[in-house]
Amino acid sequence: MDFRYLGNSGLKVSEISYGNWLTHGSQVENEQAKACVKAALEAGITTFDTADTYANTKAESVLGEALEGVRRESVEILTKVYWPTGPGGPNDTGLSRKHIHESINASLKRLKTDYVDVYQAHRYDTETPLEETMEAFADVVRQGKALYIGTSEWTAEQLQEGHRLARELRIPLVSNQPQYSMLWRVIEAEVVPASEELGIGQVVFSPIAQGVLTGKYLPGQQPPEGSRATDEKGGANMITRYLNDDVLTRVQQLKPIAEEAGLSLAQLAITWVLQNPNVSSAIIGASRPEQVTENVKAAGVKLEEGQLKQIDEALGSVIERDPAKTAQNSPQTRPGR
């Protein structure tokens, strides 16, 4: 495993991290989830990402149990706040001072730890003054409950304003967690340049585009049984936009490129996002330990310029690059259950 600095901070994270969105506490039985975490640790992964909203708090609990007995200082735990938790009452969501303080305390109990390494704003809250949000995050840091602050799916302008307030409050805002893959490149035009200027690193999710970039979904055929596209617990609706013959046909054209590089399609996809120097870590998920073992082989691989050009040519017009998609994919009002 190779390690990278998280933004311009002194914190190093494993360049492949393990996340439990859509798996722990919902799709995957607890013992299997713990086996996946064990496989991640054995593969050299030290960075673990979760959120209070995943499986409505259950994912944090499973991760906390899975990491019991592991030396706390040897791992980096990232969690998030914003989306609804609990019964979804009027203050069970957003980035108000009330919700942030109540959420960090509950997350720490579930994760069985005194602090998280990075506490992330899971989206931008349009209904709470940013000053209130950042002051609450500053309190969390000064109380020793989080070492660093991060965001998720913030626009370039939101990152700039958040970073300005963080500097005034003298707290380290060092990361952003966006969706990023060969197919979804919306951060490249605005978010990445702003982040490079601010010293913010990307911890990217869905590097294999919800499984589409594994090549297992074939044009003209029904999704394989047991795949994310057939999951009624939430996975299916996340992958729908990619399940058209144009996208799936172009993904199949990546196979010779992966073979030339000595990689599986999934490994190629993870390796691809790691070629971006602003990416500090790529999050992988898993429902089986062997998936972790295979995907970590993407660490430390360098793709040649010719291979990157071949990937662009193979995917062509199905690549989404519109920077406006970042804002469009975030709620314009606070969500409720």
TrEMBL record:
Region (Disordered): 314-337
InterPro entries (alphabetical): AKR, K_chnl_volt-dep_bsu_KCNAB-rel, NAD(P)_OxRdtase_dom_sf, NADP_OxRdtase_dom
Biased composition (Polar residues): 326-337
An annotated GO cellular component: cytosol
Entries under CDD domains matching the protein: Aldo_ket_red_shaker-like
SUPFAM superfamilies: NAD(P)-linked oxidoreductase
Alphabetically ordered keywords of this record: NADP, Oxidoreductase
Domain of life: Bacteria
NADP-dependent oxidoreductase domain span: 15-314
GO molecular function: oxidoreductase activity
Record has RNA-binding as a keyword: no
Keyword DNA repair assigned: no
Similarity section: Belongs to the shaker potassium channel beta subunit family.
Protein name per the record: Aldo/keto reductase
Organism whose genome encodes this protein: Kribbella qitaiheensis
